[in-house]
Amino acid sequence: MRTVVITGGTRGIGGALADKLRRAGDRVVAIGSADADLTSVRQTSALADRLPDKIDVLVLAAGRFDQRRIVTGEGFEQTFAIYVLGRYLLAARLRPALERAQTPVILNLSGTGGIRAGRIHWDDLQLASGYTMFKATMQGARANDLLGAGYAAHNPNSPIRYVLYNPLFVDSGMHRQLRQPMRALVGAAAALFGSSTADAATLLAALLAEPPAARLTALRRGAPVPLTRPEFDQSAAARLYTVLAELTAAA
Ligand SMILES: NC(=O)c1ccc[n+]([C@@H]2O[C@H](COP(=O)([O-])OP(=O)(O)OC[C@H]3O[C@@H](n4cnc5c(N)ncnc54)[C@H](OP(=O)(O)O)[C@@H]3O)[C@@H](O)[C@H]2O)c1
C-alpha cells in the first residue's frame, strides 16, 4: 500500500485525487488549511515533522490566489509563501521520508508550459510594488518550474522523480476566493471550458500508477514540455534554491 501525502488534498483537484487514490487502496494523508497553514514557514516545517516517515508520493497542490496583496505574519506575500516557499520546504523536509520508498515521486501541480508569461521578479520577490494576482500567479508558475529544474541538481544522488504537471483549466471551484464580478466570470468560464476535477484526478492517478522514469518531467496535461525551454534554466534554478534557503532559514 502506497502512502500518498497531498497538500491541497481537501478540495479541488487535490481533493478529487485523494478520493480516487483512497478508493484504490492507497493510504492518503490529505492536507488543507485546517491541518496546517501552508503560507507559514513555521507551520509547514511543523507539519513535515508529523507526517509519516515513509512517503511514496508527495503531491503539491495547495494554492491560494488573491486579487489583493496579502502579507503573511512572517512577512511574505501570500502567493509566494504557499506556492513557492511552502513547496520548496516540503520537498526538502520530506526528502528522507520519500527516499525510504521504493519509487518515490513528487508531483507538483503548477502552470508549467502554460501561458508564455511571467517571470521571477528577483529584485522584488514579494511583489511589494505593482502587485497583481496575475503577476503573482505567473511568478509562482515560473518559480515552480525552477523548483523542478533544480531538484535533481540540488539532490544529485536522490532516487526521487520530480514531475511538474499543468492540469490546464479545471472547474475546481478555485474562483470562490475571487471578488465579484471576477468570481462569476471565472466560475462561468470554468463551468463552460474547464474539465472536471474527477477527470483531472483520473489522469493524475494513471500518471502515478506508472510515473515517468526520468528525474524531471514536465507535462501539460499529458503532453511533454521540453526541458530545454528557458523556464528550466539551471543557473536560475540554483539562484532560486539559494534565495529560498536563506528566506526559510531566517523565517
Ligand atoms: N484549477 C485550475 O484550472 C488549475 C490550472 C493549473 C494549475 N492548477 C494548480 O493546481 C493546484 C490545485 O488547484 P485547485 O484548482 O484544485 O485549487 P482549489 O480548488 O482552490 O484547492 C486549493 C487547496 O489548497 C488548500 N489550501 C489553500 N490555502 C491553504 C493554506 N493556507 N494552507 C493549507 N492548505 C491550503 C485548500 O484547502 P482548504 O480545504 O483549507 O480550502 C484546498 O485543498 C494549484 O496549485 C493550482 O495552481 C490549477
From TrEMBL:
Gene3D superfamilies: NAD(P)-binding Rossmann-like Domain. InterPro entries: NAD(P)-bd_dom_sf, SDR_fam, Sec_Metab_Biosynth_Oxidored. It comes from the Bacteria. Keywords: Oxidoreductase. PANTHER family: ALCOHOL DEHYDROGENASE-LIKE C-TERMINAL DOMAIN-CONTAINING PROTEIN, YALI0E05731P. This is NAD(P)-dependent dehydrogenase, short-chain alcohol dehydrogenase family. It comes from Micromonospora zamorensis.
